[in-house]
């Protein structure tokens, strides 16, 4: 936790605030959770893997023994799991909801719901949960800088057959942002953030992403050139403090919004295109169970 001074200067105490955070065992999720503990929040980590979740809780408790932290289970590649999760959330008096969960660069895979895994995990089930939350609840969503370079094929919203898996990932995040703009326009307190470029656990070959050679040779270079997850999570933390206007997000303020400390930056007004929003939402509704 190298950025305590920045946190002290920019983020208010979260004492007596209850925060649910998904994807807490991922790189950005881990550091976000640690800073939440430092800021004295009551934390509920929502994770897919209970073993990893318990290890994170043990790690947090070593540094913050008085931290009030507990765990829920959710798999964002499963409609059944996210619906159970959403039902449980209705019994929690939350002050903030943070979602960092996501998958990246997986082979074309279909979930048991019959949906492409990036589409379901990064977009479809994220919205499925958010739509059931209170509109006034601050909802901090981790997007990606990659969506800015990925045009959506409106005849192929799940990007089926697309070989460039980074493009598939970016499109799933762009779909998410289109839908979030629609929800925000309808009164939801949505705060989109992105971490810039960071060598996170999403690259891990064990998760089905990039191969072992990439992780052995390229990821170490990325760690030198780009953000650490410790710094990348600061955008998420700033989202706790700042309401974000329509078509804006919180991300690094450096070159191409890829490096640096976070600030509020502009999103493309193309995300406000109601015709495109309707096409995306109509398709979402057509497969909603």
Structural class estimated from helices and strands: alpha/beta
| End-to-end gap | 42 Å
- Assign a percent range to the helix content: 40-55%
What's the shape? globular
* Assembly of the depicted chains: single chain
Strand share of the residues?
5-15%
Mean pLDDT: 90
Helix and strand string, N-terminal first?
Answer: HEHEHEHEHEHEHHHEEH
Describe this structure in words.
41% of the residues lie in helices and 13% in strands. The strands form two sheets. The chain has a six-stranded parallel β-sheet with strand order 3-2-1-4-5-6, with helices on both faces. Strands 7-8 form a two-stranded antiparallel ribbon. It is an alpha/beta fold. It has ten helices and eight strands. β2 (42-47), α3 and β3 (69-73) form a beta-alpha-beta unit. α4 (79-89) packs parallel to α5, α5 runs parallel beside α6 (165-185) and α6 (165-185) packs across α10 (274-287).
């Amino acid at each position: 936790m190298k950025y305590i001074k920045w946190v002290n200067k920019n983020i208010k105490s979260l004492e007596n605030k209850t925060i649910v955070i998904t994807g807490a065992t991922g790189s950005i999720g881990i550091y976000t959770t640690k800073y939440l503990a430092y800021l004295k929040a009551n934390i509920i980590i929502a994770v897919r893997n209970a073993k990893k979740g318990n290890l994170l809780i043990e790690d947090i408790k070593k540094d913050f023994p008085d931290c009030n932290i507990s765990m829920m289970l959710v798999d964002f590649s499963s409609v059944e799991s996210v619906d159970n999760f959403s039902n449980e959330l209705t019994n929690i008096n939350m002050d903030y909801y943070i979602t960092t969960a996501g998958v990246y660069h997986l082979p074309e895979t279909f979930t048991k719901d019959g949906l492409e895994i990036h589409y379901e995990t990064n977009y479809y089930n994220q919205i499925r949960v958010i739509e059931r939350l209170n509109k006034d609840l601050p909802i901090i969503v981790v997007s990606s800088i990659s969506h800015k370079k990925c045009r959506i094929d409106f005849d192929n919203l799940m990007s089926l057959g697309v070989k460039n898996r980074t493009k598939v990932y970016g499109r799933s995040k762009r779909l998410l942002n289109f839908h979030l703009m629609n929800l925000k326009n309808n009164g939801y307190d949505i705060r989109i953030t992105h971490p810039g470029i960071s060598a996170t656990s999403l690259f891990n070959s064990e998760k089905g992403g990039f191969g072992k050679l990439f992780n052995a040779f390229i990821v170490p270079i990325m760690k030198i050139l780009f953000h650490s997850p410790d710094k990348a999570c600061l955008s998420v933390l700033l989202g706790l403090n700042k309401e974000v206007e329509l078509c804006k997000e919180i991300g690094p303020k450096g070159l191409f919004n890829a490096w640096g400390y976070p600030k509020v930056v502009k999103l493309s007004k193309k995300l406000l295109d109601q015709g495109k929003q309707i096409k995306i939402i109509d398709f979402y509704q057509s497969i909603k169970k």
